[in-house]
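Please supply some protein, with fold tokens.
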Amino acid sequence: MPRFLHTADWQIGRYYSRFENDDGVALAEARFTAIERLARLAVDERCDAVLVAGDVFDAQTVSDRAIRRVFNAMAGFSGPWVLLPGNHDAALAESVWTRARRLNAVPDNAHLALEPGVVELRQQSLAVLAAPLTQRHTHSDLTEGFDELETAEGLVRVGLAHGSVQGLLAEGIDSANPIAADRAVQARLDYLALGDWHGVKQINSRTWYSGTPEAERFRNNDAGVALVVEIASPGAEPVVTRHATGQYAWVQWKEQISVATDLDELLARLSELSAPAVVDLKLSGVVDLAGERRLLQALSVAEAKHRSVQCDRSGLSLQPTDDDIAALNADGYLGEVIADLRELQVSEDQSRAQTSREALAILTTVLMERTGTTEEASS
């Protein structure tokens, strides 16, 4: 009864340039610790093997240190690992894989499927049919060769491939590295383990994408998961179980603030969000001075709680109410300046609108501190 772990798209070496440096470093580091979690999961779930369906590395140019760290992170599971080259780490004549071998970094229990064929794991009752990418993009179905591959009697046939199942993924995904949707049936596979789609996706009862074990983008595609697959015997239906492996949840919200209760709901959701997370907010609408203070306070708390909190407030106009203006004692020239800044926030020139918003925020803050409004509001 073979039981194995299906994972893919580790993307080791990925950079996160959109984040602050310390956040980007932490997110990159999480991809290494994800491998350690996978090893522990394989042990805890009594798996016979771990199958990695491509894109172990994000690029051929990763450092020697990164290569060594990948294989070191796998040490927690002593059973066989089968690693398949994907489009980011294709099995070129000179590749990250040939460097790994020259470095003597590949342990004995790691099988590098650099050529099409069968990786036979007799002790685990598994025959892994591998279709490695030998260039970044192909326009023929490399899994077609599975149809002709013979495997020893009594071994469960598992295909391992990296590419796009035709006609079933999002529009625009079908351009390269195609895979037939019925390959499992055509090749008499008990299971087809796929990589390239970064979230969990079931194609049919025998064909699955595992997704990446650590999310790396704001997309609701069920990332941060690995699959434990159990197959009782050749021909039996696979039993597939999802296991959460991600360290960071990636959350992206676009919110329109029209009334005070909209802000109330947003801040409640933000305070209830499980840590640690990577949070991206894009706000639009209007907020008064009290709402602005509450928002800034909530963001400050969230920044200390989560890995990263980014908030785009360029579309959120700061609109002091008449009571706000009266409390600031902003008569005469100051009142005229505040009125002008309020109007400029709706400028079609986004840079000018943002500058006006920031200027209004600074001015009102100074006036609040001068008049003691801030202390009154917080008491």
